[in-house]
Amino acid sequence: MTPELALQKAVRARLVVTGDILSEVPASSILDRNERPAPDPSIIIGEGQSVDENDSIKRRLTRVYMDLHVWKKEPSTTGVKAIAGAIRAAIHTTKLPQYDGYHFADCYVRTIRFLRDPDGETSHAIVTLSAKVQEL
Predict the structure, then answer these.
(1) CB–CB of 17/23 below 8 Å?
(2) Mean pLDDT throughout 29-37?
(3) Which domain holds residue 106?
(4) Pairwise CA distance, residues 60 & 40, whole Å
(5) What is the DSSP string of 72-123?
(6) How many domains in the chain?
(7) How far is CA 20 from CA 28, 66, 85, in A?
(8) What average pLDDT does this structure show over 1-5?
(9) Residue 79, burial from CB neighbour count under 10 angstroms (0-12, 13-18, 19+)
(10) What residues contact 19, with CB distance under 8 A and at least 6 apart?
(11) 94: left (phi > 0), else alpha (psi -120 to 50), else beta?
């Protein structure tokens, strides 16, 4: 297990049990895959980056950034904004529990971008999470 994968699993586990998210996106459409078109609506676990924090000689602390892509067929960005807001609330409500030997500290939504897809029918949001992940 890696810090990135542990965070991905912990975040997905949180999202698929959060009522405000499930009222907008079915749990079966919160996934890690690369396919277009994405299910409508959906949250796709996307790109990321890891940076070693190197705060101790043990080197067990990593800053992980993770993008969540929100897709919805709609003429405006209202729906993706509502879903992104529900993601923010789900992440900020309580700390993520430990997962597969990793502890998650300082997990928060760093940025949210709202975009219109060139197809003219789909809205897209990119929610970027940031977390300190410590191997236990």
Answers:
(1) no
(2) 85
(3) 3-135
(4) 38
(5) EE-SSSHHHHHHHHHHHHHHHHSPPPPBTTEEEEEEEEEEEEEEE-TTSSEE
(6) 1
(7) 15, 21, 9
(8) 92
(9) buried
(10) none
(11) beta
Q: Which pTM does this prediction carry?
A: 0.92
Q: Which residues pair with 51 in a beta bridge?
A: 63
CATH number for the domain harbouring residue 112 = 3.30.2000.30
Question: Phi/psi of residue 75, each to 5°?
Answer: -80, -15
Give the pLDDT confidence of 4-22 residue by residue, as tens digits. Answer: 999 999 999 999 999 999 9
Cis previous bond, 97, omega within 30: no
- CA 136/CA 132 separation, integer angstroms: 13
Nearest CA to 86 among 19, 26, 131, 13?
19
**Total residues found in the chain within this entry:** 136
Q: Residue 35 pLDDT > 80, yes or no?
A: no
Q: What is the pLDDT of residues 59-72, one digit of tens each?
A: 789 999 999 999 99
User: Structure tokens of 4?
Assistant: 């990135």
Contact criterion met (CB below 8 Å) for 102 and 6? yes
Residue 24: closest CA among 128, 132, 129, 123: 123
